[in-house]
């Protein structure tokens, strides 16, 4: 019953007080969520660029590099024969040594990839979505705890490998492994959570800076410039892989002919 002349005080159970640190934590969480989404996207772009360049390099070595190795070997043999015919010509001796070194280097480069089957990298939308989720949740640069970081690094390496192989099931298993681990359990208390969130924001920004630097390095690499040339030619209807292979095959035939018809010098 309300007594005339008096007003009823509101019940404390209906008063909601938002503390400044709670508001700050909420703001920082929103900032971190945006950073994590951006980081996951940039991490995906960087990993895709790495794998695409690696795929291009393997294809180049398989279709062109092996032919270059054969051609360089024939050139080295021709140079060595010419040097043997003219033992007093220092210029020819040096030319033969350089040709042999170049042939050995080319053979070594192509041999390192000969055991790997070439496969064009073409990630599906689902694979990309899974990778974003993994990078957003378990990237090692998003934690300040040493034990948690080590666990994340191990899982992120598995995730990168699964992404490169196009293995969606393996990528899903990596994500599930972290979600069920003790490291994924958050601590208690607003102050501690606020500090962790601020540090995660700092780590995410630092990683974004690293990604930017690594991306620029890859975009200025010889492999990227070469792939750009091949892609531009493809848009104009030219298959540089086939054209180069045909040209080198022709040069190999000429080198074999010259080598076969050049007499072997008689021993003195």
Fold blueprint:
Layout: H1 20-85, H2 90-111, H3 125-138, H4 146-165, H5 168-179, H6 190-219, H7 222-235, H8 240-260
Helix content: over 70%
The beta-strand count equals 0
Amino-to-carboxy terminus distance: 131 Å
SSE order, one letter for each helix or strand: HHHHHHHH
Helix count, DSSP H or I runs of 4 or more residues: 8
Task: Give the averaged pLDDT, no decimals.
Answer: 83
The parts where pLDDT drops under 50 for at least 5 residues are none
> What characterizes the major β-sheet?
none
Rg over alpha carbons: 31 Å
**Strand portion:** under 5%
User: Structural class of the helix and strand makeup?
Assistant: mainly alpha
Shape: elongated
List keywords for this structure.
single chain, 268 residues, mainly alpha, 8 helices, elongated
Give an overview in words:
This protein has 268 residues and is mainly α. It contains eight helices and no strands. It is elongated and about 105 Å long.
What's this entry about, in short?
With 268 residues, the chain is mainly α.
